[in-house]
Specification:
By secondary structure, the chain is of the alpha/beta class. The protein has one domain: TIM Barrel (Alpha-Beta Barrel). It contains 13 helices and 8 strands. The strands form 2 sheets. Strands 1, 2, 3, 6, 7 and 8 form a 6-stranded parallel β-sheet that branches. Strands 4-5 form a two-stranded parallel sheet. Helix 7 runs antiparallel to helix 8 and helix 7 crosses helix 13 (318-328). Bound molecules: zinc ion (ZN).
Length: 344
């Protein structure tokens, strides 16, 4: 969508479970059968900018974020797909950083390609961009191969997919030959903007401010999740499976249980990316060509010639947008790796 957070710049129901009567398998089975439709909508959790989005000076710091993210996702039975920027591994403590990616696989998660250095396809020549994607296979692909698996998901940085049809055709042709599928995004919560403020509050030891940002983030997430459900219904007359974009941030590491509760309340059931992509909605054509980093509901709205209800779309609080922009403008003299700071 032509939303500032993606374009240009950088862009369970609290399940009504009838109380089980003890000792009666038939009743339990009936309950399972009748409650299943309440969880009919799947949501795949995807996590970008691995190993760590935001402040990441040492592998030890990254391990704290990674451990909390993975423990939270496992606690809530999320089988997430993490998208790696291998530039983040280029530091003196490289082996320990690679171990963070191994931890994702050991926790039952999948890993995909998010380019080596997080370039914009809007601003980068396509052959340079292709080389950057190939370079991102250096560590991730062998880690998957060692487990008998193959790297096969690609996520566009900034969700930018090419400004001309020639670029789209060339890059997507290359991706297909390489065995990749594009991981679309059909739900997101601008988490990266809140994460910047959260990191800054934690860095200065202001736990009260961090708690306020986290609360704003969760309130916004609850609102935007409801909006995406409504928006998808305007396109398909039903709720398709969703693909939710999050980032590997300290904020999310501190919020997984609360995010899981929001998904449950919204009658969304975490599923794998492979499972979500089997929903026929994902066979809808995407013909968008241009500079903006649009998510896929907007792309499909153009294909289907239907309007999304942007007038009711919740907005990230202005203070959060301004705070993120201000903080991102300050160079980080300690950062050993230089992934471009604002992401999708
Ligand atoms: Zn990203």
């Amino acid at each position: 969508m032509v939303e500032p957070r993606f374009s240009g710049v950088f862009s369970a129901l609290r399940a009504f479970r009838p109380r089980a009567r003890s000792g009666c398998l038939a009743v339990a089975a009936l309950i399972a059968a009748t409650s299943a439709p309440l969880y009919a909508t799947g949501v795949a959790i995807t996590v970008d900018d691995l190993p760590v989005y935001g402040r990441f000076w040492t592998a030890a710091e990254g391990k704290d974020v990674t451990d909390r993210l993975l423990a939270g996702m496992q606690r809530n039975h999320w089988k997430a797909t993490g998208f790696v920027n291998e530039i983040q591994l280029d530091a003196a403590d490289r082996p320990a950083r690679i171990a963070l990616l191994e931890a994702w696989l050991d926790a039952g998660m999948d890993l995909g390609n998010h380019t080596y250095s997080h370039p914009s396809l809007t601003k980068t020549p396509v052959e340079t961009y292709i080389a950057d994607v190939a370079r991102d296979e250096t560590v991730t692909a062998p880690l998957l191969a060692a487990r008998g698996r193959r790297e096969h998901w690609f996520r566009y940085p900034f969700l930018e997919t090419g400004t001309t049809q020639a670029v789209r055709t060339r890059f997507e042709g290359w991706l297909g030959e390489r065995g990749y599928r594009v991981a679309p995004v059909t739900m997101e919560n601008s988490d990266w903007q809140f994460a910047t403020l959260y990191d800054a509050a934690i860095a200065r030891g202001d736990l009260a401010a961090a708690a306020r940002v986290r609360q704003q983030y969760l309130t916004f997430t609850r609102e935007i999740v409801a909006w995406y459900k409504q928006a998808a219904r305007t396109l398909f007359g039903r709720e398709p499976s969703f693909v939710f974009l999050l980032h590997a941030s300290r904020l999310n590491a501190a919020s997984i249980d609360a995010l899981a509760a929001i998904l449950r309340d919204a009658r969304l059931r975490p599923i794998t990316l492979d499972a979500a992509m089997r929903d026929p909605a994902y066979r809808t054509a995407d013909h968008y060509v241009g500079p903006d980093g649009n998510e896929w509901l907007e792309r499909w709205s153009q294909t289907l010639n239907k309007r999304l209800p942007f007038e009711t779309m919740p907005r990230v609080p202005k203070a959060v947008v301004a705070g993120d922009a201000r903080l991102e403008a300050i160079p980080d003299p300690h950062a050993p790796a230089s992934v471009s700071p604002a992401h999708s």
